[in-house]
Amino acid sequence: MAWFSCPLGIIQNLFASLRTLPTQVLISAFSYSLGLILLMSLALGRVICGWLCPFGLFQELLYRIPFYKREILLPYSLQRYLKHLFLIFFVILLPFLYLTEIGYGLVWFCKFVCPAGTLEAGYLNLILQPHLTKNIGLTFYLKTALLLGFLILCIVDLRFFCKNLCPLGLIYGIFNKYGLFRLRWNEKKCTLCGACEKICPMSLRIPKELNSVECIRCLNCLSICPSKAIVLERSLFYLPHVDLKSITIKELKHAKK
Ligand code: SF4
Ligand code: SF4
C-alpha cells in the first residue's frame, strides 16, 4: 500500500529518492503520484475518509466504547493546522532533507507516526509472520505507544485522528469544493435547529464549512436534518453559489434573535 496506492507513502518515497534516482524515473513517479492524487481527490475526495478508510471505521467503533466522552479542542485552533505541519515536515521536508548512508531518505510519517500503518500493517504482519517479532526494535515500541495514545483519544473524541492529525485527509480534501460529491445547504428550508452541527463528527460549522477540506462526506448532517435542507450534489461542474454562505447556523440563530 505504501509503495503503490497510499498517496502519503508515494509522496514520501518520491521526496526520499529525489536526490538519488534518475530524472526520467522521477518524472514517471511524479506523474503517477500526481495523477493518482488528482483522480482520488476529484472523483471521491474525502468520501474515502467517511466511507472507505479502515482506520476511520476503527475510530468510529472505538468511540462506541462506553467511556468518558468530550470534544477535545486543541488551543489556538491547532486542529485545523496540525495536519498541515505533519504534511510539510513528516511527508515532504524530512524525507527530502535527511538521507541515509545509501543516499535515500526515510519515509518519516510511515516509519515514525502513522498509527494506521502500525495497526493494519505492523501488527497484522506480526500475526501472519510471527517469526518477525525477533526483529522488533525501539521504533516499533514507540509507535505502539503512540498508537495506544491515539486509540485512547479516539475513544474520548470521535475520529480524533482524522480531525486533528491525518495529512492524508488533507490531501483528499483539497478538491472538496470542486469534486464530484458536494453538499448544498438550502437557507429557505433550514429551521436553524442546529442538529446538523451537533452530529458532525468533524465538529464543522454548517453551512460555512460544508464543502471545506475537513468535511469527510459522512452524510450524518444530511440524514439528521428534519427539513431536508442539506442535499448531496453530484456534478462535475463547479457551482460557485454553493460557497457563498460564509455564516454558521449559530451565527444565523444569533442574528435572527
Ligand atoms: S458536514 Fe456533514 S457530511 Fe461533512 S463531516 Fe460534518 S456531518 Fe459529515
Ligand atoms: S440544516 Fe437542517 S439540521 Fe441543520 S440547522 Fe438547518 S434544519 Fe437543522
Question: How would you characterize this protein structure?
Answer:
By secondary structure, the chain is mainly α. The chain folds into two domains: 7-172, no CATH class; 178-256, Alpha-Beta Plaits (2-Layer Sandwich), CATH 3.30.70. Helices cover 51% and strands 4% of the residues. It has 13 helices and two strands. It has helices at 7-16, 23-43, 47-52, 54-63, 82-97, 108-113, 115-128, 138-156, 160-164, 167-173, 195-199, 220-224, 249-256, and strands at residues 181-185, 230-234. A two-stranded antiparallel sheet has the order 1-2. α4 crosses α8 and α7 crosses α8. The longest helix is centred in the first third of the chain and has 21 residues, at 23-43. The radius of gyration is 20 Å and the shape is globular. The chain binds iron/sulfur cluster (SF4) (2 copies). One iron/sulfur cluster binds at residues 185, 190-196, 206, 224-225, 227, 229-230, 249.
In short:
Helices cover 51% and strands 4% of the residues. It has 13 helices and 2 strands; from the N terminus they run ααααααααααβααβα. The protein is globular and about 65 Å long.
Beta percentage is under 5%
Ligands and ions found:
iron/sulfur cluster
SSE-based structural type: mainly alpha
Quaternary organization: single chain
Number of domains: 2
Q: Report the uncertain regions.
A: none
List the total number of helices.
13
Query: Span between N and C termini?
Result: 52 Å
Q: How are the strands of the biggest sheet laid out side by side?
A: 1-2
| Integer-rounded radius of gyration | 20 Å
- What is the number of strand segments? 2
Largest sheet data: 2 strands, antiparallel
